[in-house]
Amino acid sequence: MLLIRYQPASLLLGLLLCLPASAASAQSTYPASADGFRIAGTVVNALGGNPLPRVRVTIEDTHDPQKLQRIITSEDGRFEFTQLDAGKYALSGAKRGFISASYDQHEQFSTAIVTGAGVDTEHLVLRLAPFATLSGKVLDEAGDPVRQATVSLYAEDQRSGVGRIRKVRQEMTDDQGTYEFAALQTGSYFIAATASPWYAIHPSSVQQGDGLRASTSVDPSLDVAYPLTYYKDATEPDDASPIPVRAGDHLEADIQLSPVPALHLRFHVPENEHGFNMPVLQRPSFDGMEYVPVEGGQIVSPGVFEVTGVAAGRYTVRMPVTSPGEPPRYSETEMDLTADGQELDPAKGQPTSSLKASVKLLGEANLPGQLLILLRNSKSRVVAAQQADAKGEVEFPEVTPGNYEVLAQGAGQAYSVLRISMQGHETAGHSLDVAPGSSLDLSLTLVGSATRVEGFAKRNGHAAPGAMVVLVPHNPEANHELFRRDQSDLDGSFTLPGVIPGPYTVCAIEDGWDLDWAKPAVIARYCEHGLSIVVADRREGATKLQDAIEVQPK
């Protein structure tokens, strides 16, 4: 059931003051006027356009964030800042019941207000969208509320340049089975719920003759589990129904759980002085994995443990692999768990691997502090991150076999993995194949840069504010981490920070925020009309584009 009802925005949770995204650096020193410059305009409701009174409006010098001013809008939504110096200012607003936002904000980007550049800064319209809420109940098969159910909220996300569906929040239902996700932005969402039936009983198997048999002391209708269930009545993410959410919506979506027979799963535990770890079960959920809780862990015969409370389905099973006298390692395998009494056998899985790496920075004797090395899988999910120590060494003890991008991340500067050396062989780039059960010893060579690319976006010869500007690397499919983006400011200027030296194409796209801009097939047609540049190897400063970038329609 999906209902829409409207309530006063003042009832919503809120007053979350978002700091505006950093805007581009000033391109030149603008001439000052005798009385200084003004930034003025009106704050309006993005839903309907009516002026909003009592909004806290902030301007912040993009060169010096400590220099900021705040005022409250009048009853007609007007604001005005006077006697300002020439420069760039981030403009933002906040009001209870509305999503705090910067001027013309898209994702983490916004358009900075540029005084002294010959553009109109006195008739601005700052739009704030009212919060939306999504609430509902989790019900059991009898229509009764389910307490303490876990409800997950997923959202479509374009920030990585490829459309993904990611988990963004998680709540527990109250004693009425109710959940609520407040302060939602416009977008497309999914929800899923999981719980254990309050009446469920999972008896241990018993030894009968030459084998284990399910206990007959409990009615089978009580030995049940609830599978992870998506709105609307789906147990697989591909069958889930999206819930479109608009500004100001108050939506209700109920999820009904239906019990299925609970599986009893067994695994062997060899004698080992280190003890043993329980198996870990995961199920795919959109672009991530969900941990599935198991119950039990009881000895049902010598060396055999049993877990239960699991619904049938396809799982990734992570199991300890033990050897006498050694700490356990792990194996992972995808399994269709469909039969009661099925055995979880670590020998059928792929053993995890270990990875050690020494890190050096090209042209530098020492590494920066707080340098992270990350592993990103084929679904663009960072699955592991470790900080390099003072010697420039980093270790990943348990890595699932597969192909990874090796990434580097530091504070205040961009880094990229230039090459990987292993056992005397050197490969360019940052892609790494991890074979099952391997122990890899690598050397990573990084390149860093604090340089930036600055330019102007124009539309038919005039400044083009609010355009999405994309810096596209050569061979974009293999260099996803080299993409950079910005939003053009009121005078059309933009800054692309932390650019790694190399060849690129700069494109400006009108309202391109919902594009899969990181997909080579999508961005290629814009690159045909973009500007090709080569960014030199420099430690700081800027590469300034001599020609303006023409904004292309989406």
Please describe what this structure looks like.
By secondary structure, the chain is mainly beta. The protein has four domains: 2-128, Immunoglobulins (Immunoglobulin-like), CATH 2.60.40; 133-351, Carboxypeptidase-like, regulatory domain (Immunoglobulin-like, Sandwich); 353-449, Sandwich (Immunoglobulin-like); 452-552, Carboxypeptidase-like, regulatory domain (Immunoglobulin-like, Sandwich), CATH 2.60.40.1120. The chain is built from one helix and 48 strands. Strands 40, 41, 42, 43, 44, 45, 46, 47 and 48 form a nine-stranded mixed β-sheet that branches. It is flat, with a radius of gyration of 28 Å. Residues 3-32 have low confidence and may be disordered.
Q: What does the secondary structure layout of this molecule look like, with pairings?
A:
Layout lengths: L1 E3 L32 E9 L10 E6 L6 E5 L5 E7 L2 E8 L6 E2 L10 E3 L8 E5 L3 E8 L10 E8 L6 E9 L5 E7 L2 E8 L11 E3 L2 E3 L10 E2 L3 E2 L12 E3 L4 E4 L1 E2 L3 E2 L1 E6 L11 E6 L2 E5 L2 E7 L2 E7 L2 E11 L2 E12 L12 E2 L1 E9 L10 E5 L5 E6 L5 E7 L2 E8 L4 E9 L2 E4 L2 E4 L4 E11 L2 E8 L2 E2 L4 E6 L10 E4 L5 E4 L5 E8 L10 H8 L3 E5 L6 E3 L4 E4 L2
Parallel strand pairs: 2-9, 10-20, 10-21, 31-39, 40-47, 40-48, 45-48
Antiparallel strand pairs: 1-20, 2-5, 3-4, 3-6, 6-7, 6-8, 10-13, 11-12, 11-14, 14-18, 14-19, 15-16, 17-22, 23-27, 24-25, 24-28, 26-27, 28-29, 29-30, 31-34, 32-33, 32-35, 35-38, 36-37, 36-39, 40-41, 40-44, 42-43, 42-45, 45-46
